[in-house]
Design a protein that fits this description.
The structure is a single chain. This protein has 325 residues and is an alpha/beta fold. The protein has two domains: 3-107 and 301-322, ornithine cyclodeaminase, domain 1, CATH 3.30.1780; 121-297, Rossmann fold (3-Layer(aba) Sandwich), CATH 3.40.50.720. The chain has twelve helices and 16 strands. Strands 1, 2, 3, 4, 5, 6, 7 and 16 form an eight-stranded mixed sheet that branches. It has an eight-stranded parallel sheet with strand order 10-9-8-11-12-15-13-14. Strand 4 (49-57) and strand 5 form a beta hairpin.
């Protein structure tokens, strides 16, 4: 009998520290060749987009498929969110469906967790660093949470085109993380940070890459189509560039594709996949002055790893509803 887990139940079971650890293992499996990661399947009904994202992780024993839909008319027509996600988890030994869980919160946490892993391996090691976040939405919150798990921060800076959104971000995240957070008046103020994250919906660069300070680490999160980018050519060019997946970066990430099309650099400028850094196949940061950049596109292995740990914790805690199909 499969188990059903609601959004509230997933929220009670999945914390950022645990998610960072299992997502790190997932990226290592991808590098080691024990992960199966097919290309995501996209179907476009008349009013929306449906994405099917399967993955298998041999080491973690995680076999899953996430279904994500984007229907822009949902709020007005049906009172539903624009984006809806569900994850189906299977027993890899029998193929049996063991759990169906809400995927919205899980997706947000696992996306933050990838940046937490990248920060762990690419940012400078010293304590007391400052984090800077572009954007003040749900994902920006997860990004700051993950960076605070990966490094002991002294403070944070947030910038959003909506001052009210930035105020709400500070009101929620400062007590949650016990961290001083200040609102930036301009994008340049965010670049005072040691670790910078872009988590916006902007289709154009959100800061001037020539102003990046030596030693900065960047997590590029928001843009995920070939014609959109949060990072300009100068930011990408100046950085040691690491991606979650070479295939995804060169096929989907405008932050990388556009500079290549401009002739600013070639595909070889994409130095490594994150899993290669984790497993020691390639070194990460090579000096305190080096600028490092992690480009995240979002991979189904992250969903599979997170879903498996949620399910295991649900069994342990006696959470969820079993149903007969």
């Amino acid at each position: 009998m499969p188990m059903l887990l609601t959004r509230e139940e997933v929220m009670s079971l999945l914390d950022m520290a645990t998610c960072i650890d299992v997502v790190e293992k997932a990226f290592a499996e991808l590098a080691d060749g024990t992960a199966v990661l097919p290309l995501r399947i996209a179907i476009r009904p008349p009013d929306g987009l449906a994405l099917y994202m399967p993955a298998y992780l041999e080491g973690l024993g995680a076999l899953a498929c996430k279904v994500v839909t984007v229907y822009k008319k949902n709020p007005a027509r049906f009172g539903l969110p624009t984006t809806i996600g569900k994850v189906l988890l299977q027993n890899p030994e029998t193929g049996e469906v063991t759990c169906i869980m809400d995927g919205g919160y899980l997706t947000a946490v696992r996306t933050g967790a990838a940046s937490g892993v990248a920060t762990r391996h690419l940012a400078r090691k010293q304590e007391g660093q400052v984090a800077g976040v572009f954007g003040a939405g749900v994902q920006a919150r997860m990004q700051l949470w993950a960076m605070a798990e990966a490094r002991r921060l002294s403070s944070a800076i947030v910038y959003d085109v909506s001052g009210e959104a930035a105020d709400a971000f500070i009101a929620e995240m400062s007590p949650k993380l016990d961290l001083e957070i200040r609102k930036a008046a301009s994008p340049d103020e965010v670049l005072e940070a040691d670790i910078v994250c872009t988590a916006t919906s902007s289709p154009t660069p959100v800061f001037d890459g020539s102003r990046l300070r030596p030693g900065t680490h960047i997590n590029g999160i928001g843009s995920h189509t070939p014609d959109a980018r949060e990072l300009d050519t100068e930011a990408a060019k100046r950085s040691r560039l690491v991606g979650d997946s070479r295939e995804a970066c060169l096929g989907e990430a405008g932050d990388i594709i556009i500079p290549i099309e401009e002739g600013a650099f070639g595909e070889s400028h994409l130095y490594a996949e994150l899993g290669e850094i984790i497993t020691g196949r390639k070194p990460g940061r090579t000096g305190e002055e080096e600028i490092t950049l992690f480009k995240s596109n979002g991979l189904a292995i992250q969903d599979a790893a997170a879903a498996k740990v949620v399910y295991d914790k649900a069994l342990e805690a006696g959470v969820g509803t079993e149903v007969t199909l």
